[in-house]
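Notes from hallway chat w/ T.B., transcribed later so I don't forget. T.B. wanted the structure written out for a chain they're using in a teaching module, and asked if we could keep both sequence and structure tokens in one place. Agreed to drop them here.
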Amino acid sequence: MLRIFCFLFFYGILLTGQVQSRDVLNKKSVKLYNDAKFYAQSGNRTHAVNLLQDIIKKDPPFFMAYFGLADIYHELNNFRKEQEYLEAGLKQSGEQYPDGFKFLADLQYTKADYEEALINILHYEKLKPSLNTLEKRLLESCRFSTSAIKSPIAFRSENAGSAINSDLDDYWPSLNGEGNSIVFTRLLKTDIQGRTLTHPQEDFFISKKDSSGWQKATPLGPPINTVDNEGAQSLSADGRLLFFTGCGRPDGLGSCDIYMSVKQNGIWSEPVNLGAPVNSSSWDSQPSISADGKWLYFTSGRSGGQGKKDIWRAERLGVSTTGFPVYGKVSNMTQLNTPGNDLSPFIHPDGQTLYFASDFWPGLGRKDLFVIRIDSIGKMPPQNLGYPLNTNADEEGMIVEVSGERAWYTASDRGFGGRDIYTFMMPEKLKPNRTSWIKCKVIDRKTNQPLASDVVLNDLTKSYQIQHQYPFENEGEFLFCLTSGHNYGFNISKEGYLFHSENYNLIEAADRMKPVSLIIYLDPIEVGKITVLNNVFFETDSYQLKPESNGQLKEMVEFLTKNPKVNVEIGGHTDDQGTDEYNKVLSEKRASSVAKYLTDLGVALTRVHSKGYGFDHPVAENKTEEGRAKNRRTEFKIVE
């Protein structure tokens, strides 16, 4: 949009004496200027340029002609000419036209001449009583950019390689939690027969990583890839759900909508439109799913936001019997969004760290990448990721691996051709919370076949449920992302089988932050079968149950309620530290405490027995602390 010609009416300014200081103005110059304005607004820029240059030639002090030319060259993206005429106009006008300093500062900021831009916008601030929102933003960005250039972050990017990138545009990477499967968007120029497409088409490609590295990317294929465009996708941590953007589809609610596909038996399902209220009659795109599946972050241009495009999020309300999560309760990230464009959200698997792009928060130009913790939104501004990761070009679509050590993003015009996907090691101050993952396969011990089971992940310290996966949400395999600072317990159960529990205390055990892969065998309910109660805890040298045990104990009550014919023995075991008598008594009292808890919650006394074994039945050597910890255990045994 023409900034000067559209908003300055020369005769009105002339009458107030704010533009030209000369006592007598050349009436011919005034007429030519207004004629140039008419032609410029009508789209005849060539004629407008000729008229303005004629003014300059015949009446050099008529400085608005210089600014008019700068305005036209601004629209033509001819920055060299624009700057030439802005500087010439300011030389003639002095301080009579303050906007000239603002326009010059804006141009210099765009070109990454940050120090010069800061000088000119500060001069403009002195000449104007107060700055509007956009002017304040320009001043703050110039200040930030000048400082950022002087204090660059440690940043070195690497091309993701020829297995992923091609001579076409490859962009918008998304990873599963293990970091061994990447789905990205590729802009195709030919069809599968090699024929040139009338319009380039976006499709998804996938590459998988094995011991030899990333394998050659292949099309994700139907039913997700179609003759339409698919892009801006998000892969769930377990690799089972794919959220993506589809535009102009028959079932769409707006120009672009968010769709979802579920991988079932290794095959992606027919994508479904998430529908209202996630999708609207406007543009809805760029989904990012949280690792626990509770929140879906996305970008939308719908009404009711703070700016042009805003970041929103939807809450998971439940799961359909076909395994499709259902989202609703859409809310605007009000205190994060700005009057500009805030987009490209990525919620890290820690559930707290949000990376996004914005063209309004103070940055180095156009769209920059930012980071903020969810619980600090509204309390402090987001942090710009800094220079040279951010530049005066567009940066967006960045993701960070579960470990927080490495990030992936898209860069242009270097590498294999067009846009390529790059990686870099995250600077320490920009990393998310320490996070790892645990992957489990659940197997029937008798048949050795996978079992789709109920899986509940709890925070034992705060006594709340973090995540619940139902049998129709997994096929005997699941993955949880675990963030440091929590004591995690998860319980695996299936009708007709004895339950299984695991514990991962990550409050202080930093050495346990490494990824873990487990195979868990479930036993059918039969007499003699035993499971260790890994989430039952006692005070040191005491039979007093800790509050962290409540979740496990309630799960035991639920098991016994669902299986009314089952009678059990609670067995207490210790390590070999101390006397035989001491350990026998302690183990008996601990087993009795668990049995009493169960009966207090309604389980019949005749169904629960307790017995202390002391250190008579070790499952590991007592020579190490790790071995002794395994021997200090409480068991749940089916006796009848």
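Follow-up for T.B.: The CA atoms of residues 11 and 512 lie 75 Å apart. Might be a good example for the class.
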